[in-house]
Specification:
heterodimer, A: Creatine Kinase, Chain A, domain 2, nine-stranded mixed sheet, two-stranded antiparallel sheet, B: disordered N terminus
């Protein structure tokens, strides 16, 4: 969740005159880091996952499952655990954590939602295949430790979105009424926000900067008894406490949609994110680009959030909800009014899909960056003058069109070019589906990294491990074979939209590259060269055809499991299998990895369900479901209990488990 | 120069060395079973070499000389001709280099010693290294079968031992850090072990239906500290018929070889250990004109 700097945060009105200064300093810090670290070489593969949990509190008397707001207390309890202290500590924000070899303690972090907890492995995983087998046990251990430090009626659940966040009445423990001064939401209280000053400030400043509350409309799933047309009945039109109460009178809530109006609806969702260290800056740029087209595919395959604000919706994923939940663009920036105070018309939220590729690989063609993006040209010039190349300078100049949202007065007074606080202020509030991460300044140990951010958290650690491992194996396969997944970036954005549709994993098709192998050059001068490059053709390499001929629409099953025929797309799984056949793998590791890859295979071909489908079916077949799209507290209670059972592993082998991991 | 003009080379050469070059970025063929991967990448490598030659000649950039896809030196023919060795991109210590040597059926046992050294030398030269981390020996008559408990004949054990001696020598010469075997079940392994001075570190098995490894093998491997690795290679890696039909595709060039018989195949991989990236993978194969073998 970015930096948790302490200090006095400025309101949006106070921060506004300083935004150019923060950005300029951010660029100076970036340039400083880049100059120091651009020659960093031969860093080993280290990687880690981040898993987010909802902390649920049961009320057994009323058979209700609510969100517990005890994040801070749970973290304190974790920090005070004597055994965990002996193992080096596990809450970096509250104690000095000193990882000890051999007894890695996972680390726990606060998140935006006061009902959330984030956990990461205590130390990064290593680069061997055997290390992959430690992922699932590590995830399970985290869940057990988290649970041990919760109250008896509380439990961590890895569900992407809490189905009843924002319903009328009680959904938190303890109850707070909605409509506080920070979010000004009709539905959620300010008390769901992590009270660390950064988070309320972020919430308020996004709202202030935007000039209205955020506006999230997700299509309702029309069931047999759902009112048609559907007008979200939970919306109050007659409040006059804040100026933003007028939003709904001005049409903020769209017909046929579930309407949400606060950052918490998005940033309260749980994700599964993976970060890798690359060997050098160039490999990091390659991985950033090559994983980029995989973002939407993995979003659809990991789909786990069909319910928002107590309603079944017609989407399966959280992504667009978060995107809208942190959309700080003004009306001018959204193109609704002519530019007057603002500099740019910006087509996307700060939280959105990537809009520009950054690698200089021979396989890249300029046509792939087919979207004109806004750039902060004066700052870009500084980067270029400092020696940075065009594609990378463009990437950062694009991130730096955004304003800093949380400015601490202390950090304005104390500028240190050898820090990265100003840079990270912009960088870490650009939530794109990939993140390119320079080494933190002054720390030689850490290299250039890439974060894969689109996946939804899965109900079980088996699935979370499988998705993480799949991505790691895919990166090794990409690097070994020199694979090329480039498609025009506008198609990646289109795929991201497609991924949200109900059951997109089986019902929709996605743009994907047909020919992913590098062209082999007839190069007899010694070193093998392989490239898909170059504008002009050299002997043995075919002429570059039109970009449109390089990709087509494929189902996720085809992308993962391959198309038939000798020229069909071979499938990512057979590419990974082939990689595994090229390296030394011991029998146990190979068999375990097969289990994880099998999950991806079966999810893709429809043998096993996504969590989104499973949740949907659970609700629609519940005896208390009235076929009206509403998820009442009884259904929710049973659903959360089932999710807990699956997540803790207790469900293994039961009918419940088979429901998720058995042929539909 | 047309390929046909080179047919003047001697058909009496004692050996033909085939090489694929680095195939890791070679595209689709890497998805195939090892036998097809080998044939297809040989075909590709020959084609690439001849295309490059023709282009060079057409450009007039160099004076016509013997095409580089074909080289006859010291009574050995190289197909394609040798080029600068690829070498490694980084420090030797970063790599895990594995070599798998396939002894082929019908080849006199007494030649295995020389074949082993030859094959390894080609790999060492290509990668520009003085040793490999693991050499796995694959015998033609040995294939792992979970159901197979039959006792190997004394003759078979003697033959394995004979070849194994060479591996031990290479280990003592520091050219091989670890010795591996392919497809040895528990029965075979326990017969061979008493004859070894340096224990094998690896037994590489093809677990088709993953995870069904017989208990005796697991126990024996654990007791003897032998690591069980997986592979997906084809035992019949290079049938001579396949090689001959490859040569017939370009009979103008290779017609004078007559029929050839494959003698050995070696597969090598160089993996950057800390990053799990395969940097180099390729094959060499040696064949003899049928008349001279």
């Amino acid at each position: 969740m970015g930096l948790l700097s302490l200090g006095t945060p400025l309101s949006w009105e106070e921060a506004k005159p300083l935004v150019d200064l923060i950005r300029e300093r951010g660029i100076e810090q970036l340039l400083n880091i880049w100059k120091k670290a651009k020659g960093k070489e031969r860093d080993i593969l280290l990687w880690g996952d981040e898993i987010e949990y909802l902390v649920v509190a049961y009320d057994e008397n009323s058979k209700d499952a609510r969100l517990s707001l005890r994040q801070a207390e749970i973290l304190k309890d974790l920090a005070h655990d004597k055994e965990l202290q002996k193992a080096g500590g596990c809450v970096p924000s509250l104690q000095k954590v000193t990882p000890r070899a051999g007894q890695q303690c996972p680390t726990f972090h606060a998140e935006y939602g006061r009902f959330m907890l984030e956990a990461t492995p205590g130390a990064p995983y290593g680069g061997t295949l055997r290390d992959l087998l430690t992922v699932e046990p590590d995830m399970k251990k985290r869940r057990v430790i988290a649970k041990q430090h919760m109250a008896d009626n509380e439990t961590p659940v890895t569900m992407t979105s809490f189905p009843r966040l924002g319903v009328p009445g009680v959904f938190t423990q303890p109850y707070y009424p909605p409509h506080g001064p920070i979010a000004r939401s009709l539905f959620v209280p300010d008390e769901i926000i992590n009270p660390h000053i950064r988070f309320p400030t972020l919430t308020a400043n996004i709202r202030s900067r935007r000039g209205s509350k955020v506006r999230i409309n997700m299509p309702v799933f029309y069931d047999e008894q759902t009112a048609k047309p559907f007008n979200d009945p939970t919306v109050s039109h007659d409040l006059f406490d804040y100026p933003e109460d007028a939003d709904v009178r001005n049409g903020a809530a769209k017909e046929g949609h579930v309407y949400m109006d606060a950052m918490g609806f998005g940033m309260g969702a749980c994700c599964l994110q993976i970060t890798f260290q690359a060997k050098n800056i160039s490999e990091a740029r390659t991985l950033y680009d090559q994983l980029c087209p995989l973002g939407p595919i993995m979003l659809a395959l990991s789909a786990a959030s069909p319910v928002f604000k107590g309603y079944l919706t017609d989407i399966d994923c959280r992504w667009n909800v978060i995107s809208a939940a942190v959309d700080d663009r003004t009306e001018e920036e959204r193109g609704l009014k002519p530019l007057h105070e603002n500099r740019y018309v910006i087509p996307k939220s700060r939280y959105d899909s990537v809009s520009t590729y950054i690698s200089q690989d021979p396989g890249f063609r300029p046509e792939y960056n087919d979207v004109e993006i806004q750039q902060n040209f004066p700052l870009k010039q500084k980067l270029l003058d400092g020696g940075m190349d065009e594609p990378l300078a463009k990437h950062f100049a694009h991130l730096f069109i955004r304003d800093p949202l949380v400015v601490f007065s202390e950090s304005v007074k104390n500028f240190d070019i050898n820090m990265n606080d100003n840079f990270e202020n912009i960088q870490s509030t650009n939530w794109q589906h990939m993140r390119f991460k320079p080494p933190p300044s002054g720390e030689d140990a850490i290299g250039w990294r890439v974060e894969f951010r689109s996946m939804e958290v899965q109900l079980t650690d088996f699935e979370n491990a499988a998705f993480s491992i799949f991505i790691v194996l895919l990166t090794r396969t990409i690097l070994s074979y020199g694979l090329n997944f480039y498609i025009p970036i506008s198609k990646v954005t289109e795929n991201m939209e497609t991924a949200h549709r109900r059951d997109a994993v089986l019902s929709d098709r996605f743009y994907f590259r047909k020919q992913v192998f590098p062209h082999r050059h007839a190069n007899r001068s010694g070193k093998e060269t392989a490239s898909t490059n170059s504008g002009h053709s050299s002997p043995g390499s075919p002429e570059m055809g039109p970009v449109e001929d390089e990709y087509c629409l494929m189902t996720i099953n085809e992308i993962m499991n391959g198309q038939s025929g000798p020229d069909g797309f071979p499938g990512l799984l057979s590419l990974i299998e082939s990689y595994l056949n090229s390296v030394n793998v011991d029998v146990e590791t190979r068999c375990e990895l097969a289990r994880y890859l099998d999950l991806i295979r079966k999810r893709s071909n429809g043998t096993w369900e996504t969590a989104a489908t499973w949740i949907r079916n659970f609700i629609r077949s519940h005896p208390k479901y009235e076929k009206d799209s509403r998820v009442n507290s009884e259904i929710n209670y049973d659903l959360i209990k089932a999710a807990e059972k699956l997540g803790s592993g207790e469900g293994e082998g039961t009918e419940l488990w088979k429901g998720l991991f058995e042929r539909r | 120069m047309s390929p046909g003009t080179t047919a003047a080379m001697t058909p009496l050469s004692s050996a033909i060395i085939f090489s694929t070059g680095n195939i890791i970025k070679g595209g689709r063929s890497t998805l195939e079973k090892s036998n097809r991967e080998l044939i297809n990448s040989l075909r590709q490598n020959i084609k690439d070499a001849s295309t490059a030659d023709k282009a060079q000649v057409a450009n007039g950039s160099t004076s016509p000389k013997l095409p580089s896809w074909f080289e006859n030196k010291d009574d050995v023919i190289y197909v394609p001709g040798r080029t600068e060795p690829t070498g490694l991109g980084e420090e030797r210590a970063e790599y895990d280099i594995t070599v798998k040597l396939f002894y082929l059926p019908g080849i006199p046992i007494h030649e295995r010693c020389a074949h082993t050294r030859q094959a390894l030398d080609h790999v060492l030269q290509e990668l520009g290294v003085s040793s490999v981390d693991l050499l796995i020996a694959s015998f033609p008559d040995v294939s792992f079968d979970a159901e197979d408990h039959s006792e190997p004949s004394e003759q078979a054990v003697a033959e394995w031992t004979q070849a194994y001696r060479t591996l031990e020598e290479l280990h003592l010469e520091n050219k091989i850090k670890k010795i591996g075997l392919a497809e040895f079940g528990a029965t075979r392994l326990s017969k061979l072990l008493p004859h070894t001075n340096i224990k094998p570190s690896v037994d590489q098995i093809n677990v088709r239906d993953c995870c069904v490894v017989p208990k005796p093998l697991i126990q024996l491997a654990r007791a003897e500290k032998i690591e069980l690795l997986t592979h997906n290679d084809c035992t019949d890696i290079l049938p001579s018929a396949a090689l001959n039909s490859l040569l017939q595709e370009d009979s103008a060039t290779f017609g004078s070889f007559g029929r050839v018989g494959a003698q050995w195949v070696v597969k090598y991989t160089a993996v950057i250990q800390d990053r799990g990236v395969v940097e180099n993978k390729g094959y060499f194969a040696m064949a003899k004109p049928a008349s001279s073998s």
